[in-house]
Amino acid sequence: MIKKRWIIFIVLVLAITLPACTGNSPNNNSNDEISKEDSTNTYTNPDSDINNTGTITNVVYEDIKLTPGEVFNIYVKKYPNVKVNKLALDFDRGLYIYEVEGYDDTNKYKLKIEPVDGEILKEEQKQRDDNDTEDEITIENVNKIQELMDKALKDAGNGYKVGEWELKFENGQSIFEIEVVDDNDHDIEYKYNINTMELIEKDQ
Fold it and tell me: Which UniProt keywords apply (predicted)?
C-alpha cells in the first residue's frame, strides 16, 4: 500500500513539473535574423550582432577605436596590389561598419570591417566593368578626414555628432561627404574637396 502511494505521489509530481520545464523553451526560429545581400558572402544580424568571420555589437560613435588610416592600412595589407577608391563609415540598423573598396586590372574588392577591433566581417570580389573609373584614394587623403570631421562638427554647433561619412571620387574630384546629427535626429550634410579642404556644399 505504501509503495502504491509513493508511485501515485511521483506521478503527480512529474505531471506538475514537466509542463513547467517545457513551457519556457527558447524559439530558435527567431524573426530577428536579417540576411544580407550576397548569397555567397553573407552575414546575419541576430539580436543586433553581425556574424560572418566575426561579430560586432551595437556601439556609439565614441566607442570606435580604429582611425580611418588604420582601416586603410588593413585593406592595403590584405590587397597589396589594389588601388583604393572608396572609404566609408556606414551606420546601418544601429551598427557602425567601415567599408573599403578598391580595384586592380581585372577585379573589384570590398571589405566590411568591424570598427572597434578591426576584424574583417565580410569580403566581396567582383569582375570589373569596362566603364569603371581608375581613381585612387591615397593615405594622404585619408589622413585629412579627421580634420574635416572636426570642421563640420564645429560648424554644426553643440549637440551634433558624427552620423556617417564617405571618401570617394565624384566628377574627377576626391570628395569627402559627412553627415552630422543631433539628439532630435536633425541632420546636416557637408561635402568637401579633400585636396583643398574647401567646403563644396552644405545641406540642412
Answer: Signal
